Amino acid sequence: MKITIAEVGRYVGQEVTIGTWLYNKRSSGKIQFLQLRDGTGFIQGVMVKKEVPPEVWEAAKELTQESSLYVTGVVREDERAPSGYELSVTDIDVIQIAENYPITPKEHGTEFLMDHRHLWIRSKRQHALLTIRHHIIQAIHDFFNKENFVKVDPPILTPTSAEGTTSLFHTKYFDEDAYLSQSGQLYMEAAAMAFGKVYSFGPTFRAEKSKTRRHLIEFWMVEPEMAFVDHEENLQIQERFVTHIVQTVLKNCRQELAVLERDTTLLEKVEAPFPRITYDQAIQLLQDKGHDIKWGEDFGAPDETAIAEEFDKPVFITRYPTEIKAFYMKPDPDRPEVVLCADLIAPEGYGEIIGGSQRIDDPVLLEQRFEQHQLSREAYQWYLDLRQYGTVPHSGFGLGLERTVAWITGTKHVRETIPFPRLLNRLYP
Amino acid sequence: MKITIAEVGRYVGQEVTIGTWLYNKRSSGKIQFLQLRDGTGFIQGVMVKKEVPPEVWEAAKELTQESSLYVTGVVREDERAPSGYELSVTDIDVIQIAENYPITPKEHGTEFLMDHRHLWIRSKRQHALLTIRHHIIQAIHDFFNKENFVKVDPPILTPTSAEGTTSLFHTKYFDEDAYLSQSGQLYMEAAAMAFGKVYSFGPTFRAEKSKTRRHLIEFWMVEPEMAFVDHEENLQIQERFVTHIVQTVLKNCRQELAVLERDTTLLEKVEAPFPRITYDQAIQLLQDKGHDIKWGEDFGAPDETAIAEEFDKPVFITRYPTEIKAFYMKPDPDRPEVVLCADLIAPEGYGEIIGGSQRIDDPVLLEQRFEQHQLSREAYQWYLDLRQYGTVPHSGFGLGLERTVAWITGTKHVRETIPFPRLLNRLYP
Ligand SMILES: [Mg+2]
Ligand SMILES: [Mg+2]
């Protein structure tokens, strides 16, 4: 019976064959302990010298780290094993002896590991991280599916950008110029007018020469957009959404969180509703804490961390100054110098994971914004059309996948939260 | 109670309010029939003159196509309605009267409609098409989730391409050159060695000056890759996969298929296993049919259609000549002039929807291929590493989302199967 390590629980007491790689091994002279992985999990194979033919024993002695082999054995329950099972090995069939695998159990520098990212992802910690990333991706799709959102894929190649082209990647599109999208939001607004509630989930590109632990050049973003949804409902959906993601990971990824030694105390508390403070209150709070910041300025990472410290859940900062936010955000009718927006700040210093707002639905105000921001009416005629032909109140937000993975897994630098990171000086592998 | 059209079935006999757009209307003088849409569905609102205040009756008379309004009414079951329900309107609250909506119920040319794609997606047919696209996307995620695949996102920005850069979009990546990925497959092979069974699902770019009805410049592709899976198992997974997609659409999208007037006779028959013919047999078949084709040549669209005509299910064409297929495909050990590959051809002239193969696992043969194809060892050292450190038999395939949507929805041209198509002369909206 050819199975995977993830399936061993269904085969206790039975002989099975698994295609594997040797992760590590140790030997007592009479017993060889083979740490095996097959991508679906890790298991220990126990080979007792007197219970296998001599050539099998000798073959096992030749195995090096990352050698590939089919292993045959009987599945045993074992409470001490992290997976709960081990394998009493009866036979092995070596596919390849790996020579000089570069990533040894000893310590390596980050640049070296990143140069070997194609192999590094086999390591236990990276495997756990990217498995949790996968579960977060699935939780995102599940949430929007259950809430009857339609997935709409906005284009990556776009003729221009409403927020300037300085941090965009440029390419020739036959005879035209095109740029890689930094956000599909404007397209998603068009889609919301056609499908009501929509979401996108795809790669996004930012050609910024920044080297912080929160920035990737290429990253994945979720962008929901909803017709007939106002600022308040928008926040409620975000609360449910983030709660769903965190609770799904806590339910499905206990082993992976343990591998990462993630303290889940604060994660367990992530349940809607989330605390909210206004931008005004946040400024006051920071000033009280001695930060050098004035009303009208945006928050830096240390500011966000200082605000997050005051709460043990993600916190919404609402109603930022109109001046420092995007042109499409709807001003508060009672106080037009601030907009009906919110950023969601993760606890524990992981920073902003969501930015969202109600959008301007008034065609006259949107035209004014186009003039103020010197946006091309020609390039965005289609966007202006949305306010001419049945404008409605609508809202949306964007969640950065890698920052969310970094927070939930407790990973300092986002570069480990994506399989093949693209950084300022890294385009390989 | 504020609800959506999709939810009306739960509110029969109750008064509800729905945010909507007017799709169309007609009047008998005493009754106005308002065709309403809200993105989640379509419903008819029936307003009887003597049952509403005069100002409500007059307001309804002002409504133009794509005007936005909140409509309040009592939900009634109605067997004649496509949705099964209609609304006895008691009140309306107009948000905006739309003036001169450009897409009228009369016929428009394709270029005009594509220029107004941001509005065209509101039309019934486009709404149905893209709703089915959404259900196909969800079916794809569901399938791989149930089969315990891990979603891995390969990078879009890559330093070079193993298959040449002539049809790639180029961009400057700070001081380096980068290209938009045409396939994440090689990265997915690295991922399969770390996670066993993986899939990617993301946008792909092909800078080809082709204008056929099967080509998009930017399209979405699913690329699964599986360790310890051979050619035969690869085909079985593809059969299960495509069956799952088609049967899910037949189950969940009856209304949308009806809007599209899709004849589902052949779709109903899509159940694994699928017929298989070898490339040799396909050449013989085409020659018998009078096609001008010789062994060693690739099939064109008319050839694929002629082959598909012989079957009422998707058909696998297996074992193509090594010469005309990608460098990484594993030769048939019994007959190295052909490779262990298969293309899956959809019925009814929709062409190739899947290409897949077992991959070369022998490091020596792969090195030979690199020399024959003059590939850069330096750029692909990481890929060669995969055969040095525990190489294993492995297979994978790629499915084109838009071609699959075109087939299942019975749409001739792929340009309508993606929300915002990118074509040779189209980068707007
Ligand atoms: Mg911010
Ligand atoms: Mg082909």
From TrEMBL, chains A, B:
Task: Tell me which UniProt keywords the record has, alphabetically.
Answer: Aminoacyl-tRNA synthetase, ATP-binding, Cytoplasm, Ligase, Nucleotide-binding, Protein biosynthesis
The primary location reported for this protein is cytoplasm
Query: What does the UniProt entry say about where the protein is found?
Result: Cytoplasm
Annotated family: Belongs to the class-II aminoacyl-tRNA synthetase family.
Classification via HAMAP family: Asn_tRNA_synth (MF_00534)
Presence of keyword Aminoacyl-tRNA synthetase: yes
Q: What is this protein called?
A: Asparagine--tRNA ligase
Q: Which GO terms describe its molecular function?
A: asparagine-tRNA ligase activity
**What EC identifiers does the entry list?**
6.1.1.22
CDD domains linked: AsnRS_cyto_like_N (cd04323), AsxRS_core (cd00776)
Complexes and interactors: Homodimer.
Query: Domain of life of the organism in this record?
Result: Bacteria
Chain ranges of the Aminoacyl-transfer RNA synthetases class-II family profile domain: 130-429
Entry keyword annotation includes Protein biosynthesis: yes
InterPro entries documented for this protein:
Aa-tRNA-synt_II (IPR004364), aa-tRNA-synth_II (IPR006195), aa-tRNA-synth_II/BPL/LPL (IPR045864), Asn-tRNA-ligase (IPR004522), Asp/Asn-tRNA-synth_IIb (IPR002312), NA-bd_OB-fold (IPR012340), NA-bd_OB_tRNA (IPR004365)
Q: Please list the reactions this protein catalyses.
A: tRNA(Asn) + L-asparagine + ATP = L-asparaginyl-tRNA(Asn) + AMP + diphosphate + H(+)
Q: Which Gene3D superfamilies match?
A: Bira Bifunctional Protein, Domain 2, Nucleic acid-binding proteins
